Amino acid sequence: MPRTDNDSWEITESVGSTALGVAAARAAETESADPLIRDPFARVFLDAVGNGVWSLTSDPGLASKLADIAPDAQAYRRVMVDFMAVRTAWYDQIFLDAVAAGVRQVVILAAGLDARTWRLPWPDGTTVYEVDQAKVLNFKSVTLQGSGAQPRAKLVNVAADLRHDWPTALREAGFDASKPTMWSAEGLLRYLPAAAQDLLFERIDSLSPSGTWLATNLPDKNAVDPGLLSSRRELSQRFHAAAAQVLDAEIPDMEELWYPEERTDLTAWLGEHGWDASAIGMADLLTRYGRAVPSDVELPPVDFVSARRS
Fold this sequence. Notes:
Family: Belongs to the UPF0677 family.
Organism: Mycobacterium cookii
Strand content: 5-15%
Number of strands: 7
InterPro entries: Ppm1/Ppm2/Tcmp, SAM-dependent_MTases_sf, SAM_mthyl_Trfase_ML2640-like
Function: Exhibits S-adenosyl-L-methionine-dependent methyltransferase activity.
Enzyme class: transferase
């Protein structure tokens, strides 16, 4: 179903289901022979919801059936697991570097099923604000509590839509804009219109004193190339048809969930606003973490941007 300005979702629907897709990739990586990252909570979320399109990533048996129908699906699955593995490792390291530098206030925007509050070794005195839609946060809290998991930092859930006035909700929850913060916006920006992305960073900038850190990823400048859009659309349609056959169910079209629009050069924008920012592309990030750059499938057109305000 195409996006609308004020749409909302359950965890198994629309943008919510993409969080399960990320959890599925993290579970597959965690359970692999030589995992780059370990997320013991990813499988907990998947067990709570049962089978869905995400199962084609996390269940080797279903993945094999999918590959029988669509041979290029196996290469696509491998790339997506590697993508989420290196993405997770990259964000994890920035979080740990920020708190090692003394930051004790963390904001995870579009927290989804990110379990860092439960799995990273947070220093004493760290407060983590998780911002997302109420239904998503509720599913996450209930599921983790049911598994007996306990957060390893002070957790504050902030139910807010990032297209609306989330800074007010964040302040009302106890956020202190005078303190250095570690901000993350992982896997979020492609699901925002370009104008909403600009507003998001204007708000982050206004809430960020000296010593603040930021990590995010976003579509790279080639993401809206007509040729690339066409080839990725064709791949998505083949995957969509094969997935529906394997699962014997109607499958949502994930390509309808994001906004293929020209976007602000975020690294340059941050530099103009007093941040020391840098970017790394998908191929270079795979190489950094020892993963092969595939020749048989296109990489996600993504840049990873990290920044500090001095």
